Amino acid sequence: MDITRQLRRSALNKRGLAPIQMTICWAGHRLRIGSGEVVRPEHWDEENHKVKAVKGSYYHQINPKLAAIEQAAEEALYAAEQAGVLLSEAALRAALEPALKPGKTLNPSVVPATAGEGAAPRTFLQLMDAWVQESARKLHPTTYRPMAKTTLDGLKATRQRFALFSQAKQVPLTLEGMDNAFYYAFREYVMDELGQEANTFGKHITRLRTFLAWCEDQDLPVNRRYRKFTAPKVYVGVDALTEQELRRIQKLDFHSEQVQQQLLELHRATHSKANAPEMHNYQAWAAHVALARDKFLECCYTGLRISDAEKLGWQHVKGQMIHIKAGKTGGECYIPFYDDNLFRLVELATAYEHRAPDGLLLPTCYRVNEFLKIVAQLAGITRLTLSSKVGRKTFVTLKLYQGVPTRMVMQATGHTTEASFNRYVGVDTIKLLQEFMRRSSNAA
């Protein structure tokens, strides 16, 4: 799904305010809808498509509403995909209605976690439910976006894990009981009895600490020993393509007889399972596989998240440099726009010039990870599961092997700390061995 915002300068009202329009593209459909918000043209940030943070612009009210509309659209598409159906325009309009309605409070505060007079105090799990609800309503202070659905699902999973722990071990959950005995009992349950990894246990503890800090903010009696709870984190490696694997994907010729035959066989084996009617058309299906390959290469060549790659347009190209703001974090990304022996972004973008709509470098590609499974079979990639996230990690890994300094690669990906950046660095064992041998021969 691709969502853009436009300021309709040609539709100024008598007060000199222009309406903000949202354009939503998905699965070959396009919906233009008014956001219900207006702004002075000089207060509109044309590059970042939001209201500037200046006095009198009402940015603190308008930007969160625009973000809420986008979030509602994305959640509607996700729900449709989970149900295995195409998202219709009518269904999307219905999903957007709550966010578009004037007078709706977009960020209502949760009632403080204290019991009213005559009411029973809320239980530990009820408090966790209230915390999850408040977390879902909070907006990121920089991007004005609500919490990502995957992050919210993680909070719910932690709440469920503590409920199952309490039920299995017959241990009551209380704020006062958050001590070392609880910590060790929960660790044994997760790691020894359930056999889960240290990182899984660590994630639950990190979320628990955040929840208990929230309880303290509500002036609830929390055992302060929870502050000593440690959340282990073990490096487990990163799924990134090697240079040879990336070249195999690059060299796929979708016009060759061999690839056409493979595609035909894969289509026969999979098309009956597809829910979307257009997927039964072989030519459309094969063309979408090719687009998924190219969209993956775009992620490999730029290091962008798929959400940002879907918005990357020629307006972001400044000579031999791409400058785009990361949608998730708001960080600035400075990406080289030239070709070398491996990274061939200019060649890829030129192939789609005048073919991609709305000034994009490449057309949008819905359900990209689903079609990357076909690409992986064509290229013989079995070592890992191909996904758009692998593309971002491949960029980081291979750029470092090219000798680009870490700080410069971080400027391309938008990372601000090496700790978060290192989670994207994989190992190309062949390149590693070659570098060891090269340096050994120089020393000799």
How does this structure look, described?
- The relative contact order is 0.08.
- Helix content is 48%, strand content 9%.
- The strands form three sheets. The chain has a three-stranded antiparallel beta sheet, with helices on one face. Strands 6-7-8 form a three-stranded antiparallel beta sheet.
- Helix 3 packs antiparallel against helix 4.
- With 444 residues, the protein is mostly helical.
Work out the oligomeric state of the chains in this entry.
Answer: single chain
- Report the average pLDDT across residues: 86
For the secondary structure, the number of strands is: 8
Portion of residues within helices: 40-55%
Shape: globular
Strand percentage: 5-15%
What is the distance, rounded to the nearest whole angstrom, between the alpha carbons of the first and last residues?
A: 55 Å
Query: How many H/I helical runs?
Result: 16
Poorly predicted tracts of residues? 103-118, 274-279
Biggest sheet overview: 3 strands, antiparallel
Which structural class is indicated by helix and strand composition?
mainly alpha
What's the alpha carbon Rg, rounded to whole Å? 25 Å
Name the strands of the widest sheet in spatial order.
Answer: 1-2-3
Order of helices and strands: EEEEEHHHHHHHHHHEEEHHHHHH
Pfam families: Arm-DNA-bind_5, Phage_integrase
GO biological process, one term: DNA recombination
GO molecular function: DNA binding
Keywords: DNA recombination, DNA-binding
